[in-house]
ABC transporter ATP-binding protein (Sphingomonas ginsenosidivorax), 223 residues
Amino acid sequence: MEAVLQTTGLTRSFTQGGETIAVLRGIDLAIAPGEIVALLGPSGSGKSTLLQAVGLLEGGFEGSIRIAGVEAAKLDAHDRTIVRRDQLGFVYQFHHLLPDFNATENVVLPQLVHGATRAKADARATELLTQLGLGHRLTHRPSQLSGGEQQRVAVARALANEPALVLADEPTGNLDEHTADIVFAEFVRLVREQGTAALVATHNERLAARMDRVLRLHEGVLQ
């Protein structure tokens, strides 16, 4: 079965003060459909840079990035946007919800961009939010939700278009330990139910142990 994500020789360097700093040093990575992979490493190890690369969020990288069978590293900006829209979902440490939209609307919007009808998008948003325990908070805006509830909405938004791969960067890093456990368990459950693959950057060894596989990034090298 073809990997959902495959990188070969992925490299990223920056120039600072006349000195070249290698952040990623030839990353070879493959994630199978439905596999949940933890990416562990200390701050500054390159975890976020790797997610930025495979999420097609910025350029300047060398090497190959294949997403759902498409060589994406060299696509132009328009085609990269289409791959992100159709194949990827994102969850960040901070939820980045639209403050003037309620929970349902925040999950509906990416579906409308994807081409869903409003009725279908509303039904999908309601289904996901209810599964995440937010059936009674559908019309609440982010400012009316707790941190854990806001992050649940972010999870629903990431999964709304049934992406092939979800990229999560410290998805519970802004939550207390108890809330983080609950939100992460719900995230894993929904990802598994949908058969979606996930790459989750974290520094939390305990959460990493609950995933299918653990990779470690140290000074730009995958171990």
Remarks:
- Residues 5-222 form a domain with the Rossmann fold fold (CATH 3.40.50.300).
- Strands lie at 5-16, 19-31, 36-40, 61-67, 70-71, 88-91, 165-169, 197-202, 213-218, 221-222.
- The mean pLDDT is 88.
